[in-house]
Amino acid sequence: MDHLEHVMCPYWCLWAGPHQLVKMASLLKRKIPIKFFDFWADHPLFLPLITEAWGKEVTSTPMFILCNKLKHIKKVLRDFSKKYFAKISDRVLVAKRVMEKAQCLMQTNPSDLEIYRAEPILVKENMRLAKAEESFLRQNSWL
Q1: What is the pTM of this model?
Q2: pLDDT tens digits for range 61-90
Q3: Residue of 40, 70, 36 whose CA lies nearest to 53
């Protein structure tokens, strides 16, 4: 019974015994479905990542194979989202600052060819992240 000491119970369930509390706690730990964001598909690593995850070898009944593959893809998509799109608004601001700094350096030091080579890459990255942020906000809005 010691493992249930940290469980807080509202007044309406004071009648519940320990076995009922464990059952209620397990109901609260429901699995959350993954929400697919459209901008994931625009990332260059998305398709190879999904292809690799779907190609994972599983042997069993067809339903188990499908569920297992979907479960694996869910984990892969969560990791992918955390790695490339976590705090997307902050990433957009950083990319914009870096791009603007490179553009200022281009004006102050026009003879530096490295800056001229890097600037179009920084502009593309800024545009890609801004587009992903816009898609994220649009998909999460009610409009």
Answers
A1: 0.64
A2: 999 999 899 999 999 999 999 999 899 999
A3: 70
